[in-house]
Task: structure prediction
Amino acid sequence: MLCACSTHFRSDEGGGAVAPHQNVARVLSAKLRDGELKLLQGSIREAEASLRDALSLNKEEAQALLGRLEYDRGNYEKALENLEEIQANTFIPSLRFFVADTKAGKKKGRHFKDGKDDVLDSFLHGASLLLEALYLKVKCLQELGRHSDAVRECKLMLDSMESAIPAGLPEEWGKTKVADMLSNSVRLLPEILLEMGRVSDAMFAYRRSLLRFSWCLSAPDLVHVMKSFAILLLYGGVEAPRASLGPSHVEGAFTPKDNTEEGILLLMILLRIMNKKQGYFDSSVFEHLSFALSTCGQLQILAHQYEALLPGTLSRPERWYSLALCYAGVGENTTALELLRKSLAQTEKPKDVLSLLLAAKLCACKTDLCSEGVQYTRRALSHLQRGNSGYRARALHVQGVALRSQRQGSLLDVLETKLQNEALESLQEAASLDKGDTSIIFDLGLEYAEQMRISSGLNCVKYCFDRGWGAGVHGWRFLALVLCAQEKHAEADAVLKSALEDTDVWEQGPLLRTRAKVQLALGKPLLAVQSYQLLLALFQVEQKELEPGVMVKAKVGQRVEEVEVWHDLAQVYTQLKQWGDAETCLEKARVLESYSAATWHITVIGMLREEQGQLEEAIVCYQNALAVDTSWVNSKVKLGALLWQVNGASAIPMSKTYLANALEDEPHHQEAWYHMGMLHKAEGRRLEAAASFQAALEQSSPLEKFTSITPALFW
Result:
């Protein structure tokens, strides 16, 4: 009934009202029914007159009631006829007066209470009717498809309210219908603009809502506006003008530079609001924030957001898993693994497949943790349901890479062979389960190549390229190294040239270094020198571009150390007999030298002395390199070759020992087999010499080890 809209006249449904009131209610009900009947008959003016007489309303208030009745019935055109003449300026002067009077009364200690101030109560009732009428007018225009008119009317109303009460409504009015109608109108404007496709105008409207009308937005509407605006900024596809806070800007305060920063800031403020209001949490807000921070590479900040969530918002295993993803993304694998171990404890979620696979992947990165990683993958496989081929393929992929890494740290030949077979079987099964996953095929090709099954490795990498796979640096290098292993150096050089043209300049380091080695194999040392010089120039530009105190974090496996380049260049100059340039390169390397590069540095000095004919000094250098790292294969091979040349037949047993040790570490080392054959020939053992030379011919040592290529699992 229409009478339900009035706060002054209400019927008692319980039947216990005082008799005089019942008489008044009957008279009013009769008049209201009469007005409603006339409205149904189309007599709008007569219906308006009946309402004004029944409820003691003025013309605008009666029109507002009639308009709302028609709107509720879905008669938008008739509702608009009733609401068309209502304008905000009809009650703006009164609004200014009562707002000022309420604030002045508060300063004097007089507080607003519902029902105690009849004049103010009557005004608020009338103002709420008219504000609702203005809001419904905009809604009717929106429903009728007259969006431009709806935007104009909504802006006119908001402009009028902003000019009338720039400091906002009194705090005591916060729960009145006046505040509710204003809140609804502020929320409505950007939504209409978005329906019209005016994204930039909608962004401006959202900003205006938050900067100028936040005082009238109810808590749910404020959250809705902030969330909607943040989503629009992140996914709207239109770059909004830079935010300007105007007079509310505080000097030195953070100002967003683009849409993404502004969207992230809004979502973080929303999270803080939700953390203060315990029991209320919108998971979609955190999902949008996670996406935005992840795409920006701000995983450390995302981790702080997870840590700041109130207990109970997320379960402990869910929080730990999410934190582990963040820390793994910034390279803090140890911290991430500790969190996953806690999550996988028997008292938490020991059967969570995603946590098991992430823990296994992190373990596979380190040789000393690979066995633990294999155990995680086996647990994951045991908990997978039948028919879940996708997750099973992922688990077998991780297991294969973990077994491969474990094999590289194995000291026993029998165990190494066993791990090699298991790794290959896991990767083959993973590839059969998901033939469309090129990362699995790529890692299978790497395993084939390390087992010197070069043709199979080449087929795998070709398959990846044929599927339109964006291989990047790793794929191009792998293809080039496989071609080099087949003695197709010219094709490898062409591949690397094409790769350099398609690769960003900051990622060209590994490609330039590999190409220099290919050019050396082609007998073009001067071109190799040019490639190394380009790489050194890249280091210099990178250092100039960096801000003080900032370090470049290259992608996994795409970082070349400058000390390695100086060592390589020294070897090239050594082959060219340019001793002075070689010495200069070694001096440059010595300044940059780290402990991990010490063995290689000493070995390069030994190679230089060897080329200069200073064989005794070369032997000392190789022995020093072995003293630093007893597993250094290159020094073992060099010592095995030099000792018997310098000391004659008496040194052959010692030379054999060095070469045998080198072949245990690298069974496919071509140079080691060649020198072993020379030793057998010097002893007159022709059959053994022939076998060694035959083994040297059958080996196709790549220019760089295939283990230098990072598996696709870790990209």
